[in-house]
Amino acid sequence: MAILPIVTYGHPALRQKAKPVTRDDDVRELVENMFETMKNAQGIGLAANQVGVLKRVIVIDVSELEAYKDEKPLVLINPEVIEMEGEWDMEEGCLSIPVVRDVVNRSEKVRIRYNDFDLNEHELEAEGIPGRVILHEIDHLNGVLFIDHLSPGRRKFHKGTLLEIKRGELEIPYPVLGSQEEVS
Ligand code: NI
What we know:
Elements: E1 6-7, H1 28-40, E2 45-47, E3 57-60, E4 74-85, E5 88-92, E6 102-106, E7 109-115, E8 121-127, H2 128-141, H3 152-166, E9 176-177
Parallel strand pairs: 1-9
Antiparallel strand pairs: 2-3, 3-4, 4-7, 5-6, 7-8
Nickel (II) ion binds at residues 94-96, 136, 140.
């Protein structure tokens, strides 16, 4: 297993649409590394785009949160939202946009379809924080960031910090790749 550098705001991989995982892809090692990378950065969700890999792969582990301590880690391959219901506000952050946090309105309940490692199809219903993380991470696979959901005013409020991240001026407590660096 390896801790991979997380690409930060301004990196093109965060704005690209990830491609579906096919029979020709073996993503087991990628998934292991993503879990290790996420844990090291104390995150609860990570999309492959965030380690510069444009494949539709997400890992989630909310068990560090007291209210979800019995939740099992999730590996979602080729996830797709099939139903959404309700809405609620909650503050979010993102390992690719360190320091910036803001309230995002998302669906309360979500139903998704996804694949396992053998590309068998499954369905899953989630709400609360797990549901929110799933939606945040599926956004990543589509090149969408949580700050895209904010009002122009709130985006303007974060502009200075975003610029600092882009320029690599922020001290970040886990390995990162700046906006201009190539993924190896
Ligand atoms: Ni994120």
